[in-house]
């Protein structure tokens, strides 16, 4: 439908403003309305075309409604179609006039030509006028029973349209069950596909209020129905195949032979020329094999070639969409793609958003065998005319250096960057050299020699300048003229616009002072004076703090400002693993392109028909979002070089929700609840938006103020579990699918626990002693996956847990689902405490 | 599921606009266009094909300068929507013969007809030109194809004034030809896009061929067709890494890394004798896409030399040699090379007596450009460019190493008709015969194009 004329666009020369033309048209239409003259249809066609073209460019032609309807009494199908288009567009704003059209539309719905019946029915349902719905029910009913599949196809979508205009009319007429019947029995696959689309929408919307609808929706992913669709999949058109495949993703097969059957059946869909079909198939494969580690890996190997083919065929737009998915997989399993790195080389004519993805992929797949080639390639890009990409290429080289053990060659490259004499290259390289030194202090000698040659006057970007200043302060004993360079920077204090740089300058002056006091003393005095007079609060405060601590005791000051440092082992990741997993779960959707889970960019009512997330589900999503906050704070801190590296390690450790608090090991096996209070305090309010307690702890810790962790306000409610709980696997699967994730967190596993976890069985017995039962387990070191369940004592309320333990990082990723959402928190506490005792008893 | 579909001209005018679900506010076309036009202030970066503004996701593909756009509020599969947009463009082209702003404006009623059948309430119904035929009643108004740039890979057969046999490529699938008789013909195009990066020492760093066998059929009654490819064609490089170049070059075997097929293709005989069987639907479609990293002989060899030539002057010598047989001619060959940013002037010297070559120095982005209308196989062409650098330049900076650091790489675009580098061939094209007199025209055409052809210096 064209936009009705409310549009305010100013008419361009090619687009008439409308007024006089419209009244002209009105007159002409009137003349033709009653005419039976030969050739009148041709004149009408011309007029109608004009009307539609005005409509398209945004001129209001709604005043012609009456005339258009009068002229519509014709057998000419082209005219009819134009008239339907017009009516559909303006009926909503002219409900009274719309009534005029009902008559002829209803008549056309009984036409002998199925084409006309279908068209009329579609138009009738597209009027979107609430008080006309009573006229829809009859024609829709007969349309669904029509002998012609085109009419049925249209009627099915008509039912969905009716549902959106008036849900109650649609339900009362019992249309959903008619659609269900059609879906299971119609011979035309497009009718079946439309029924599926319509029912998914209707039942999902109804599910919150109707038990039956939610049961029906559940039945869509039942074995018989899924098999019914899968067996006919090749009869569906390619778009409908995508629809079916999306549904299959939700299906949980009962055993592995079923999984292999489905995968074998769909195998040839990976060779489809339509990228959407291939990606939908890949998603099915990935989802089906999630719990089968080795097969999952085979899937990665299998889908590599089709994905690469899709990336290089088709339009740039399609290839970008596929590349984004490839990027996601590469980031998840870089080792699988490490020999394919050449596919990720950038082409000079690719748009930046493609190059950026490729740079990240190149960074991720770098390993011992290909690093040399990759870094050489990245260095080529550093001289690129596209400056943002050149910058990112340098950053990529730095990242590779930080993730590799053998960095000799890379360090040389970075140092060469410093000599390239392009300001942005120097700037990026400085920041990298600084990070590199924090991780590999042993390189300081080589780096310092080069950094020392860089004139601070040639460095303008705040981040680069801050990095240079940090190095000057940190290595002032090795850099001959460090005090003098710093001094000249202090002299230009007022010209330094970045507060970040001024902060670093203060700290660097202090460090330099501790190492070379005589040369620095006067400059330090000047810096502190300038800092105290600074209008920026943080700069002012830091200067004052330094001043006072120096006055108090210089050696204390040195211990605070310049303590011995530990090398950073890993820099904080920008995205939590929770978010990444969620994006992976939403494979083949916009989430992958935006690199955000869907809740971050869709409204609740548009979450898609089969997303089993209701209110409570969203609560847990909210927590996931908060998880990001502390991470970002660490990032901020990370850039603040005042922090010593060891402190950073600590703050980094505490970034995850509660998980950072490793439960104190309690040797005497006291009750479960003893340690619960402590955990409770950490876990109880993670939902406080944007300000989780961990963040503030981190700051407290940083300042060393010794403020105790937030006191536990509430004593935890007692939760008792049924020691003899029972749940059969299929119920578990069903519940797991239905229930939203109530809680999701990362828990640290004690070293003793890790040591004891040589095989899954040990943990199973341990958890059982805490009334938490295992229903499925698997994996090999370092990754073990468990599904647990527990039941409330004397109640049939269940808790379901998915727990993935990585023994090398000593972390457990835990997802909890519960029948009774209110107690999931208590259960989580219990679970965590039980897990923490593993290996100690 | 999508909410709206529209086509915008380069200036942002609505050419067609269809709202399927009424969920997205009416001003979406304007919001979209503003966003695309001013994606980044410096104008350097284009908008990605998919972006989100206030909860509405906008998808777009660019086809012959037009923007095909879809909007939605739900979290759909992006490749589904982008594929759909591309497919809509193709269906429209099948019907109109030529896809252009002009043909769309002249035929917008027909386009609305198509859009109503392709999508209902946001859900895809069918994009098959074949199936749609029975729902479409408007006759296309055919616009003059000669002046217009046609859509799709087959467009390369139209380049320049020399047109390949048969103008059918711009023929509508529904329009009757003058005289009312339809010409029975079928086009099979083997289109290969090649990407090569040469290192500064001249050896191949990476190379890839992305090929498509494109078909367009105007055969009545949809007879079955058999396409036979090289018998020694093999697919998949086994356990080898894709970048491990085996010395298969010259051995004759064609090894594809991977390929995919159109829905209509039956592969029963493929494993046996490398034939594809299909009943081609109406309209243009890719029968098969394939990808190859097998070593091949690059069609052009590029050599670039930069040396100092006096005070604040340098000379660039660019040599290009065509490595294909002399009975083949490449056309629309363009070489580009970024020059150091201190370059103020460039004067060019072509070989004496050559015609159809043009040189240019783009002062704004410091780029050298060399166009060659024709490039005959086996021939070598040379360009000498004398560069003058800015007086502000520091003497110390000025040495050939620094000039080289700031210049290059040389990138090249070209089209070579009737030539393909992979040696993949259509051995025969068999059409199931209806009668002994039935002998439709068959066109099997090959073409090689540069996708990204770069020589580092």
Automatic annotation (TrEMBL), chain A:
Which residues does the annotated region (Disordered) include?
Answer: 1-23
InterPro entries reported for this sequence: AP_beta, AP_complex_bsu_1_2_4, ARM-like, ARM-type_fold, B-adaptin_app_sub_C, Clathrin/coatomer_adapt-like_N, TBP_dom_sf
Coiled-coil blocks: none
Q: Does the keyword Protein transport apply?
A: yes
UniProt function note:
Subunit of clathrin-associated adaptor protein complex that plays a role in protein sorting in the late-Golgi/trans-Golgi network (TGN) and/or endosomes. The AP complexes mediate both the recruitment of clathrin to membranes and the recognition of sorting signals within the cytosolic tails of transmembrane cargo molecules.
Instruction: Name the PANTHER family for this protein.
Output: ADAPTOR COMPLEX SUBUNIT BETA FAMILY MEMBER
The name under which this protein is listed is Beta-adaptin-like protein
**What is the organism of origin for this protein?**
Gossypium darwinii
Automatic annotation (TrEMBL), chain B:
Q: Which GO terms describe its cellular component?
A: clathrin adaptor complex; endomembrane system
Q: Which InterPro entries does the UniProt entry name for this protein?
A: Adaptor_comp_med_subunit (IPR050431), AP2_Mu_C_sf (IPR036168), Clathrin_mu (IPR001392), Longin-like_dom_sf (IPR011012), MHD (IPR028565)
According to its UniProt record, where is this protein located?
Endomembrane system
Instruction: List the keywords (alphabetical).
Output: Membrane, Protein transport, Transport
Keyword Protein transport among record annotations? yes
Query: PROSITE patterns, alphabetically?
Result: MHD
**Which parts of the sequence belong to the MHD domain?**
183-456
> What GO terms describe the biological role, i.e. biological process, of this protein?
intracellular protein transport; vesicle-mediated transport
The answer to whether keyword Mitochondrion applies is no
Q: Which family does it belong to?
A: Belongs to the adaptor complexes medium subunit family.
Which named protein is this? MHD domain-containing protein
């Amino acid at each position: 439908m064209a936009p009705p004329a409310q549009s305010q666009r100013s008419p361009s020369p090619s687009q008439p403003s409308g007024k006089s033309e419209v009244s002209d048209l009105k007159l002409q239409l009137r003349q033709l309305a009653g005419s039976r003259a030969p050739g009148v249809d041709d004149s009408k066609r011309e007029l109608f075309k004009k009307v539609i073209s005005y409509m398209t460019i945004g001129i209001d032609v709604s005043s012609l409604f009456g005339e258009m309807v009068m002229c519509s009494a014709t057998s000419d199908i082209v005219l009819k179609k134009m008239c339907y288009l017009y009516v559909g567009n303006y009926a909503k704003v002219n409900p009274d006039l719309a009534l005029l059209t009902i008559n002829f539309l209803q008549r056309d719905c009984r036409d002998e030509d199925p084409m006309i019946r279908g068209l009329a029915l579609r138009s009738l349902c597209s009027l979107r006028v609430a008080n006309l719905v009573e006229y829809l029910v009859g024609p829709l009913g007969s349309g669904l029973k029509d002998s012609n599949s085109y009419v049925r196809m249209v009627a099915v979508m008509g039912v969905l349209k009716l549902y959106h205009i008036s849900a109650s009319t649609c339900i009362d007429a019992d249309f959903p069950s008619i659609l269900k019947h059609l879906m299971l029995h119609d011979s035309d696959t497009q009718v079946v596909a439309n029924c599926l689309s319509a029912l998914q929408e209707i039942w999902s919307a109804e599910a919150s209020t109707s038990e039956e609808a939610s049961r029906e929706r559940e039945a869509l992913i039942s074995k018989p129905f899924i098999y019914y669709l899968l067996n006919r999949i090749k009869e569906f058109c390619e778009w409908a195949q995508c629809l079916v495949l999306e549904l299959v993703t939700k299906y949980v097969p009962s055993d592995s032979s079923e999984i292999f059957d489905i995968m074998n059946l769909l195998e040839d869909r990976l060779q489809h020329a339509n990228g959407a079909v291939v990606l939908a198939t890949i998603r099915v494969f990935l989802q089906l094999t999630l719990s089968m580690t080795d097969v999952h890996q085979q899937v990665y190997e299998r889908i590599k070639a089709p994905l690469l083919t899709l990336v290089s065929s088709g339009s740039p737009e399609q290839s970008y969409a596929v590349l984004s998915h490839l990027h996601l997989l590469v980031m998840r399993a870089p080792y699988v793609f490490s020999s394919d790195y050449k596919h990720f080389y950038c082409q000079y004519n690719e748009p930046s958003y493609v190059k950026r993805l490729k740079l990240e992929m190149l960074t991720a797949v770098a390993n011992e065998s290909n690093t040399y080639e990759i870094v050489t390639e990245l260095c080529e890009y550093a001289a690129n005319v596209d400056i943002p990409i050149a910058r990112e290429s340098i950053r990529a080289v730095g990242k590779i250096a930080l993730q590799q053990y053998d960095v000799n060659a890379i360090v040389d490259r970075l140092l060469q960057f410093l000599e390239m004499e392009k300001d942005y290259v120097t700037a990026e390289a400085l920041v990298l050299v600084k990070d590199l030194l924090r991780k590999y202090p042993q390189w300081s000698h080589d780096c310092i020699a080069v950094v020392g040659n860089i004139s601070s006057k040639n460095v303008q970007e705040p981040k680069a300048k801050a990095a240079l200043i940090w190095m000057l302060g940190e290595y002032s004993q090795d850099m001959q003229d460090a005090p003098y360079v710093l001094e000249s920077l202090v002299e230009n204090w007022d010209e330094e616009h970045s507060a970040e740089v001024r902060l670093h300058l203060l700290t660097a002056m202090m460090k330099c002072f501790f190492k070379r006091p005589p040369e620095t003393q006067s400059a330090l005095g000047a810096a502190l004076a300038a800092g105290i007079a600074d209008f920026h609060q943080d700069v002012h405060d830091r200067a004052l703090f330094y001043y006072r601590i120096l006055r108090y005791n210089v050696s204390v000051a040195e211990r605070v400002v310049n303590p011995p440092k530990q090398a950073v082992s890993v820099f904080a990741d920008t995205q939590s693993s929770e978010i990444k997993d969620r994006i992976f779960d939403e494979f083949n959707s916009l989430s992958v392109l935006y690199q955000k889970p869907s809740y971050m960019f869709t409204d609740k009512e548009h979450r898609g028909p089969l997303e089993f997330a209701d209110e409570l589900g969203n609560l847990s999503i909210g927590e996931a979002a908060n998880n990001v906050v502390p991470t970002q704070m660490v990032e901020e801190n990370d850039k603040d070089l005042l922090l010593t590296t060891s402190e950073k390690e600590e703050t980094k450790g505490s970034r995850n929700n509660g998980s950072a608090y490793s439960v104190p090991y309690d040797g005497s096996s006291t009750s479960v609840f003893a340690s619960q209070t402590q955990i409770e305090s950490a876990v109880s309010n993670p939902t406080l938006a944007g300000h989780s307690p961990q963040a503030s702890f981190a700051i407290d810790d940083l300042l060393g103020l010794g403020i105790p962790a937030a006191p536990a306000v509430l004593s935890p409610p007692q939760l008792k579990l049924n020691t003899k709980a029972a749940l059969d696997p299929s119920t578990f699967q069903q519940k797991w699918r239905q229930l939203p994730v109530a809680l999701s967190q990362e828990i640290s596993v004690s070293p003793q626990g890790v040591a004891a976890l040589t095989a899954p069985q040990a943990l199973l017995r341990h958890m059982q002693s805490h009334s938490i039962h295992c229903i499925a387990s698997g994996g090999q070191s370092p990754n073990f996956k468990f599904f647990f369940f527990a039941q409330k004592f004397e109640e049939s309320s269940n808790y379901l847990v998915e727990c993935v333990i990585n023994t090398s990082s000593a972390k457990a990723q835990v997802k909890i689902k519960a029948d009774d959402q209110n107690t999931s928190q208590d259960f989580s506490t219990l679970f965590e405490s039980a897990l923490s005792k593993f290996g100690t008893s | 599921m999508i909410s709206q579909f529209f086509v915008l001209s380069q200036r942002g005018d609505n050419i067609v606009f269809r709202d399927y679900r009424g969920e997205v506010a009416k001003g979406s076309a304007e919001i979209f266009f503003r966003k695309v036009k001013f994606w980044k202030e410096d104008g350097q970066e284009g908008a990605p094909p998919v972006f989100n503004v206030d909860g509405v996701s906008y998808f777009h593909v660019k086809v012959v300068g037009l923007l095909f756009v879809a909007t939605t509020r739900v979290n759909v599969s992006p490749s589904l929507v982008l594929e759909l947009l591309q497919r809509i463009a193709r269906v429209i082209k099948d019907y109109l013969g030529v896809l252009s702003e002009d043909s769309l404006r002249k035929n917008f009623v027909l386009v609305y007809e198509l859009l109503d059948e392709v999508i209902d309430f946001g859900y895809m119904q069918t994009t098959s030109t074949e199936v749609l035929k029975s729902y479409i009643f408007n006759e296309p108004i055919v616009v003059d194809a000669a002046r217009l740039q046609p859509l799709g890979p087959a467009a390369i057969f139209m380049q320049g004034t020399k047109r390949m046999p048969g103008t059918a490529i711009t023929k509508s699938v529904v329009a009757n030809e003058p005289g009312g008789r339809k010409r029975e013909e079928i086009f099979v195009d083997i289109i290969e896009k090649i990407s090569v990066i040469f290192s500064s020492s001249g050896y191949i760093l990476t190379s890839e061929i992305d090929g498509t066998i494109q078909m367009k059929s105007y055969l009545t009654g949809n007879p079955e067709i058999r396409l036979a490819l090289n018998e020694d064609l093999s697919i998949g490089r086994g356990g080898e890494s894709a970048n491990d170049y085996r010395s298969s070059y010259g051995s004759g075997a064609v090894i594809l890394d991977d390929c995919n097929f159109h829905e209509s293709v039956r592969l029963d005989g493929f494993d046996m004798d490398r034939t594809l069987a299909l009943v081609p639907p109406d309209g243009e479609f890719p029968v098969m896409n394939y990808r190859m990293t097998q070593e091949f002989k690059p069609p052009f060899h590029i050599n670039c030399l930069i040396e100092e030539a006096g005070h604040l002057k340098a000379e660039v010598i660019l040599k290009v040699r065509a490595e294909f047989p002399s009975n083949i001619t490449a056309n629309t060959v363009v070489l580009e090379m970024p020059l150091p940013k201190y370059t103020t002037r460039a004067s060019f010297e072509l070989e004496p007596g050559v015609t159809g070559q043009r040189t240019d120095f783009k002062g704004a982005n410091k780029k050298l450009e060399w166009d060659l209308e024709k490039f005959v196989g086996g021939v070598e062409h040379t360009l000498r460019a004398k560069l003058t650098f800015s007086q502000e330049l520091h003497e110390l900076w000025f040495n050939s190493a620094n000039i080289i650091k700031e210049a290059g790489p040389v990138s090249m675009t070209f089209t070579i008709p009737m030539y393909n580098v992979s040696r993949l061939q259509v051995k025969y094209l068999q059409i199931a015969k209806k009668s002994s007199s039935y002998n439709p025209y068959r066109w099997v055409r090959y073409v090689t194009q540069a996708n990204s052809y770069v020589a580092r210096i």
